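Subject: Sanity check before I submit

Could someone independently write out the structure tokens for this chain? I want to compare against mine line by line before I put it in a report. The sequence has 470 residues.
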Amino acid sequence: MAIPSWVQFLVLALLAPILLLSGRAAQLLRLPLITGYVLAGIILGPYGLTILDSNSLQTLTAVDNGCLAIIAFSAGAELQLGDVRRIKKQVTYITLGICLATWLAISGLMLSLASVLPMTAALPSKHRAAVASLAGTLMMARSPASMMAVLKETDGRGPFASLIMAVVIVKDVVVFICFAINIEMADAVIKRAESGFSLTSLVEPMYSVFVSVVLGILYGISIGRVMATPSRYFNVILRHLPQGLSNRTKGAARTAALAVLAMSIFWTATQLHAEPLLACVLAGIITINRQGEAASKALHEELGQTLAELTPLVNMAFFSLAGASLILGRVVATLWVALILWLVRVAAIYGGSWLGSWLGGTPPEYRLRIWQGMITQAGVAMGLAKAVAVRFPDWGPDFVFLMMSVIMMNLFSGPPIFRSAIISAGEARALQLPTIFNDVKSPTKAQAGPPESDDLHDHPISDHRNDSIR
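---
Independent answer below. Compare away.
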């Protein structure tokens, strides 16, 4: 007898305290919070206690999609164009350098290994190229969540920290756009290989991207208005409540409205056969940039507080379900490939960030540190990997297991390396810890600024240190 859907949603809600404790336990062990959620999901999943079995995971796909919608929207909402414009040359070159180097290195490696990987060995060459391109795009992603967590822990402030923040946020948006185009093109290539050339297979990717852009603009304008101007009737109700209760009610209403609107973007895009993640990230960009710069900063602060209230629920649900969906046997079988991918990705990030820094005129002392802030992956990468599994059920699940192995390596290795970079750059105000790679000379005050033509301010990106969810 099938378990009703509402029971499975209730089970997930009842598991929330256990998941919360697992996250806290991970923190006590000096591990990222989301690592605890992933491990708890593995224990509670089909290969552990089976509280979350395969049928439950299928039913809870709606929860996954809702979390992805909020993750993508919040990534876009971090991109304040007015702030990035001040250091646009450095950000542009570093972002392009890292993205191109990573995509070329990972795609090339995946193509060279295609004949020995079980998921691609039997695929035609065009299919292999699509898989390799998607892997390269996914490995471009970086986790703003872990970046914010390290900066919050160290109270990292200064030119280097600000440059890292700008590059990570811009690169996140670039990754979403590239992934949306990539997955549509991969779908078209595979369909064309199976059924031959047709006008539909050529038009579908363009249609999907176009509809996603339109949805992102429309929803971005709507969400901006909802966040900035609550309805007249709602204000009348608030005036009759005590001040403290009124503020809490107002905050809760905005949080609920934002969550519903973000999830409705995902649902609408899916129904229209558009790319939901691209629509969500564009909605975030439009929401935060549709007004003047001063109003944009105020809205960014308010949006940050609202998203921070959603963070615990989104983190627990998304990462625990990600852990429960892992098939451990397949993950272990792909560890050797994952290790090679991890090493090649780190090398590509190092080379791409150095080249981009050199072309952009970034100070030499920063060129040897930029890569240390670009390693960690988490929610964004996991979300994109799971989207591939949904779109391509034949080889997608195996693709997810391989990518999840690499993502977990990046999740464990990235934060301590970035923390070391902040400390050795002399920008960790809260603590002084032993550093890794401390052979790089710390910049002096005279060296700290970049060229006069591209001024790097102490805080070019908003310093709102909420616990981001990416």
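---
OP: Matches mine. For the report I'm noting this point. Residues 433-454, 457-469 have pLDDT under 50 and may be disordered.
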